[in-house]
Amino acid sequence: MRLKLAAGNWKMNGTGGDLHVLTELAQRHTHPACELLICPPATLLHRAAQAVEGAEIAVGGQDCHPQGNGAYTGDISAQMLIDAGASAVILGHSERRQYHAEADETVCAKALAAQAAGLTVIVCVGESLAQREAAETLQVIAGQIAGSVPDLASGNALVIAYEPIWAIGTGLVPDTGQIAEVHDFMRTRLQDRFGAEIGGQIRLLYGGSVKATNAEEIFAVPNVDGALVGGASLTAADFSPIVRALESST
Ligand SMILES: O=C[C@H](O)COP(=O)(O)O
């Protein structure tokens, strides 16, 4: 059985005054089949990890460098994330791919480093609106999975988040048939590559304008094992109903 995962990506939002969101979430959610993860900005990681120590909520980074250390000004290694208290990292988010020109090869190198350090890796994939309109969605997803996901010994520490770029922060959401098509396709590709067992262990999240109002129907889609949530993860009032919807889907 795959554990469900509700992951919040705070992106470049949040300072020390927002840490109460984590403690509120930790108080509200302790479902055994549903993991909760918040990825705050790197400046908050250590304090976030301390704030949720002993609670059923994990913290993660939003990026890491492929190297363990060295002359890479401004970058953060996977080991540093672990040192700060992280247990997971988001890699290849479309905002990294777009604003930092991250190609699949870079994402793959980062994922390898993160895996070697012992982090759970959340690799993001997703098509642009132009690619969807040109009927290239599955081809784009196949290429990103092939190029960004490293070889695996186990599927438990890998998560893939399908985030159509046109749905991120826009309020637009694919219909459940479109989500099902991509998630089923990803499952098949992963099982073809890694075998039924490992490919079946990898959790598949949906991300892009997930809200309390649409969470239940998204979580009812087969092969959707949870969500990667941006804007609606910034407050407990917005994120809790999404987490509850995921808990109810187990
Ligand atoms: O990583 C999260 C996604 O980019 C989704 O963001 P959003 O929920 O604000 O649309």
From TrEMBL:
The gene is tpiA. One of its GO terms (molecular function) is triose-phosphate isomerase activity. This is Triosephosphate isomerase. Its main location: cytoplasm. It catalyses: D-glyceraldehyde 3-phosphate = dihydroxyacetone phosphate; L-erythrulose 1-phosphate = D-erythrulose 4-phosphate. It is found in: Cytoplasm. The active site is at 93 (electrophile), 163 (proton acceptor). Homodimer. Transmembrane segments: none annotated. Keywords: Cytoplasm, Gluconeogenesis, Glycolysis, Isomerase. Belongs to the triosephosphate isomerase family. Coiled coil: none annotated. GO terms for biological process: gluconeogenesis; glyceraldehyde-3-phosphate biosynthetic process; glycerol catabolic process; glycolytic process. Substrate binds at residues 9-11, 169, 209, 230-231. Pathway: Carbohydrate degradation; glycolysis; D-glyceraldehyde 3-phosphate from glycerone phosphate: step 1/1; Carbohydrate metabolism; erythritol degradation; Carbohydrate biosynthesis; gluconeogenesis. It holds the Pfam family TIM. Involved in the gluconeogenesis. Catalyzes stereospecifically the conversion of dihydroxyacetone phosphate (DHAP) to D-glyceraldehyde-3-phosphate (G3P). It is an enzyme of class 5 (isomerase). Its EC number is 5.3.1.1.
